[in-house]
Write a structure and sequence with these properties.
By secondary structure, the protein is mainly β. It has no helices and eleven strands. Helix content is 0%, strand content 58%. The protein is elongated and about 40 Å long.
């Protein structure tokens, strides 16, 4: 996987296989003052957003995780799509404190799928 991302206040790790990409995001201690956060995930494969991703509400130090299966449904047209080798994949995560909504953060990673 070739990836580029923003300098972050969260660490993102990935495991890429022929079945897809599993991911994990750990917020840094700089987020500790947020307490419980509403953590949202958006994943795009070749420009189309993956359908069916739900927000997670957890304490800031939870290991947020999920998976982009190689075959998934596009949110914009409900069609099934299978990532070919060389697909451009983008992960975008946002989080906001449930107690202090003015405190929030984000992390993104753009990569090429190379199983």
């Amino acid at each position: 996987m070739h990836a580029e991302s923003n300098k972050s206040i969260a660490d993102a790790t990935f495991r890429e296989t022929g079945k897809g990409i599993s991911w994990k995001v750990a917020l840094s201690k700089r987020n500790a003052g947020m307490g419980v956060v509403n953590f949202k995930t958006q994943i795009f494969g070749d420009g189309h957003e993956m359908a069916g991703i739900k927000a997670q509400k957890q304490k800031w130090n939870y290991n947020f995780h999920g998976e982009l299966p190689r075959s998934f449904v596009w949110k914009d047209n409900n069609k099934k799509y299978t990532l070919p080798k060389g697909s451009i994949v983008s992960f975008f995560w946002t989080w906001r404190s449930t107690a202090k909504p003015d405190q929030h953060g984000y992390r993104y990673v753009n990569c090429t799928y190379l199983p």
